[in-house]
Structures are given as structure tokens and as C-alpha cells.
């Protein structure tokens, strides 16, 4: 598998606060990679660096080009879709219009068929196509945010805490859909997830972030068996 995304010695700061101290990570084409770590470790910031939402030093390479210095709009046009924490739907638009906005970077052809396709994956969205996004449940909003991101036909999907605040059954449905999406589209995924068990079950590989550093990385199966991970993230 060839490398799709590579961060080399990436640093980021918010004013005087240094949030990332030299992050190195890679995501191969079609691969699913999880970022684990405590609150405030720098996981969200890492995703924001890739999307061009935070100014960085170091190298970010994506699909054979340098990403550093690109605006968020340019990064999105290059095929990186970011679903931020807290969903990020247009609450005043209905479900279908949210999905149409997702396709705005593309020509209009095939948009209707693609919307129908995501309604198959997420039937609850199809049933609520005329409902305002702001009136959807948390799980439905997360599904909509993901479906909207997929309307861009991304090569790389950045997911920030998709399970946050959702009931266990909703989380199970959502991740089952994500597994199907990954299989059918081949989209690479970089996911930040507090639920380490869920993340390690879903991802091919994972990185553990602590205080702005990567402290551990490897195959998800192997990490799930490591004492350090079990004690810190899997409840012993
Ligand atoms: P969480 O799981 O709580 O979202 P995280 O690992 O995603 O944590 P980040 O959100 O990346 O962590 O935050 C990394 C550090 O940067 C933290 O110390 C945080 O307080 C700080 N930080 C994040 N966003 C900002 C901001 N907009 N302004 C100032 N400091 C920020």
C-alpha cells in the first residue's frame, strides 16, 4: 500500500501554548488509523493540522504533494474530508440539502444517485430527508455529517470522536456503517476516538498521543494486547 498521508515532525501552537511537539505519522491508501490519547493530548489538533485549520511547522505530505500552507478549502478540494467533533452539520438546512452541500466541490452529475446511495447506508437519513438537521438526534446528526463528507468522494476521511455522546447501540450501528463504507469506497480513515476498545477494533493501526507527542504506535491488534494500553485505555 502506498502512503497517502505523512506527517513529519509536525509542531503546532495556539498562541504561546505548544500543542504538538513533533508528530510523525502515516496513513496508507485505504488504511484506517486511530489516534488514541487522553483529553488535551493533541489528537484534535493533529486532525486540524491536516485540514489546514491550524498553522504548523514540519512537513505534511498528502497524495504526493505538500499540504502545508494550503487553506482548508484547498485541502478539502484535494480530497480530504473532515468531520469535526460535535458533528458540523448545517442545522438550518434539511438532511437532503446538507448532502447537496457536500457535493458542492463537484459537478452536479450523479449527485442524486449518490444521495440515494447514502440513504441506503443510513436509512434513518432517507426517512428524514426533509427534516432540519438541527432537529435530528445526535446519532442521526453524526450519520449526516459523515454522509455529507462522503459526498465529496474523499480519499481521506478525518473523523473526530464519532462516538461522542451517543448511546452504545447507536455507536454500534454507526461503526457497522463505517466498516461497510470503508469496504465499498476504499476511503482511508484517520479517526480520533476516546473509546479505545472501539477504535482498536475498527482500525488497522493506531498511534497513542500524550502531551503533543506520539508515544506508541503499531498494529491495532498488537496494541490492544499491550499492558500499557490495557491499563491506560482499556480498563486493565
Ligand atoms: P480532547 O479529547 O479533549 O478533544 P485532544 O487530544 O483532541 O483532546 P486538543 O483538542 O488537540 O486535544 O488540544 C491539545 C491542547 O491544545 C490542549 O492543551 C488544549 O487545551 C489546547 N487547545 C486546543 N484548542 C485550542 C484553542 N483553540 N486555543 C487554545 N488552546 C487550545
From TrEMBL:
Cited InterPro entries: AAA+_ATPase, ABC_transporter-like_ATP-bd, ABC_transporter-like_CS, BCAA_Transport_ATP-bd_LivF, P-loop_NTPase
Domain of life (superkingdom): Bacteria
Q: Would you tell me the protein name for this molecule?
A: ABC transporter ATP-binding protein
Tell me the ranges covered by the ABC transporter domain, including all copies: 5-236
User: Which Gene Ontology molecular function entries are recorded, alphabetically?
Assistant: ATP binding
SUPFAM superfamilies reported in the protein's UniProt record: P-loop containing nucleoside triphosphate hydrolases
> Where in this chain does the entry annotate a coiled-coil region?
none
The alphabetical list of record keywords is: Amino-acid transport, ATP-binding, Nucleotide-binding, Transport
Question: What Pfam families would the database entry show?
Answer: ABC_tran
Give the family from UniProt. Belongs to the ABC transporter superfamily.
